[in-house]
Design goal:
The chain has two domains: 160 residues, Sandwich (Jelly Rolls), CATH 2.60.120; 106 residues, Orthogonal Bundle (Arc Repressor Mutant, subunit A), CATH 1.10.10. The protein is α+β, with helices and mostly antiparallel strands. The N and C termini lie far apart (69 Å).
């Protein structure tokens, strides 16, 4: 857990390499079973308040602070920064913990100069960051297993936004390469097609492309017009569609062969993106092949 004293509701666990995502409840000050540790967290922690308005008290630089928090507002607690936050009411929170060493590496790969220092911010209005954190949390609360490639892409976006908006003054990102070389793009798409039935990780795609993970999503989108997640999902749907139209393989087996968690996952995804279910697609195929459908004999 990101913070042991919180009541855990949902989360990513060890699924992500450089981050942990959770939805937790924090009890009001005075209700904690044990005192909070006097030291700061080992990770950079983003916290989005999702409940009704309440007050937060904390300490910074020896001074006590108090702010009114509303739904969607957030705070950023850098690694090692002890502030002892205390809510006046029970609150539901969405949290993302980012590995400091990975964030430093990400900044280096992005062309930052100087030491990366994340600025504490205990009363922040950032609708974009709050939305990205919410998408991450919801990805681990759906019925189907989380799409790790999608979640990793969101973590990359969250990390880049944090670096851009909260890092020490005077540092900036260098422009990334505009697109992948055609040969590299072909290698990446070949890798995706070969591994559709498996977990496709962002780090693996970046390795095949010969670029850093922090740059890969941008150059892949510049090359294809799609994010890696969108491209992989599109290929899985197309492979499933072809299998359903041209074979009698069981729908559950088609789902497994195309990288979906199970038949229900395939059904929900096809309905959302193609407007019909696997069973309906099979039915349409059967009806089209039945004599009396389509063109009249001899026409």
């Amino acid at each position: 857990m990101i913070k042991p004293h919180l009541v855990h509701l949902s989360g990513s666990g060890p699924d992500l390499d450089h981050a942990v995502v959770e939805r937790d409840t924090e009890l009001a000050a005075g209700k904690h079973p044990g005192a909070q540790p006097p030291i700061g967290p080992s990770s950079h922690v983003l916290v989005v308040h999702t409940g009704t308005s309440t007050n937060l008290r904390w300490s910074a630089d020896g001074h006590a602070r108090r702010e009114r928090f509303h739904h969607g507002q957030l705070l950023i607690n850098p690694a090692g920064w002890a502030s002892r936050p205390r809510w006046e009411d029970d609150v539901e929170l969405m949290l993302v913990a980012l590995d400091p060493a990975w964030l430093e590496k990400l900044a280096d790969e992005g062309g930052f100069s100087g030491t990366l220092e994340i600025t504490p911010d205990y009363h922040r209005n950032d609708a974009f960051l709050a939305m990205m954190v919410e998408r991450l949390v919801l990805e681990y609360e759906q019925k189907s297993p989380a799409d790790t490639l999608y979640a990793q892409s969101l973590v990359q976006a969250v990390a880049a936004h944090v670096i851009k908006t909260t890092a020490s003054r005077g540092v900036g990102l260098a422009p990334a390469s505009s697109a992948l070389l055609p040969r590299r793009l072909a290698q990446v798409t070949d890798y995706i097609h070969t591994h559709l039935a498996e977990r496709v990780a962002l780090d693996d795609l970046a390795r095949v492309a010969g670029v850093s993970p922090s740059h890969f999503t941008r150059v892949f989108r510049a090359s294809t017009g799609q994010s890696p997640h969108q491209y992989v999902l599109g290929q899985r749907l197309e492979q499933a569609r072809r299998a359903l139209l041209t074979t009698d393989t069981a729908i559950a087996a088609v789902a497994d062969a195309c990288g979906f968690a199970d038949q229900s996952h395939l059904t929900r995804t096809m309905r959302r993106h193609l407007g019909l279910t696997p069973s309906a697609l099979r039915t349409d195929r059967t009806q089209a092949a039945t004599p009396g459908n389509g063109d009249l004999p001899g026409s």
